[in-house]
Amino acid sequence: MGQENVLGVEEKDQVLILTLNRPAVMNALNFALLHAMRDQIDKVRFRTDIRVVIITGAGDKAFCAGADLKERAGLSEQQVKEFIFTIRNLFTAIENLNKPVLVAVNGFAFGGGTELALVGDIRIAAETATMGLTETRLAIIPGAGGTQRLPRLIGKGKAKELIFTGRRVGAPEALDIGLVNRVCPREKLLGACLEMAAMICETGPVAIEQAKYAINHGMETDLATGLAIESNAYWVTIPTQDRLEGLAAFREKRKPVYKGK
What we know:
- By secondary structure, the protein is α/β, with parallel strands linked by helices.
- It has 12 helices and 10 strands.
- The strands form 2 sheets. A 6-stranded mixed beta sheet has the order 1-2-3-5-7-10, sandwiched between helices.
- Helix 2 (31-44) packs parallel to helix 4 and helix 6 (146-154) crosses helix 7 (156-165).
- The longest helix is centred in the N-terminal third of the chain and has 19 residues, at 77-95.
């Protein structure tokens, strides 16, 4: 299967939808898929006409089953290191993308599949979704950020429980522990993501970029430093045309038209 087929790419109303497209192997991550995703993320960073990215999986069964273990079996130790390096860099690039990333967890998400969901900003899961960092059951540990991002999202105690046991959690429990933001019926999943994306598209692009920057970087430091990061991010928005447009629209009782300037 060629690189161009392993990832579905669709644009709709300022939204880029990336669909992991290897349903025969539960959308497992191989080198071709990682490289295809990297290329799309690198390109969309500088596109002002795309405001939100949605990542989902093809088919009803799986979002992403993690690394492609059939490919892994044929790799040398050096190639496994290359794979881990590639997936870690890609996931960090997605996490640091200057646009909101919504993850539509449409089915099974194990190992690297859950780690991929963790790098999104907002996770919406189908009622049928099952998630888990299952690596310890293969005598390895999460290698694409799972040991770091899961405790930051759901707390250290619960993260240790899930990683130490390799236990899988269904959508209701994922919602309960804060692993996902929302749960909805499978057939309404993409619609729910597009609805949220549409709300984000009504906001100021520069403001969103700065808010994401302030949250991501501020969370990694103490409150005083975080407040300084927020303050600097706020200053970036003050001289923008969009801020003046927002005030004018409020005064004139109309919807603002933001241009990211």
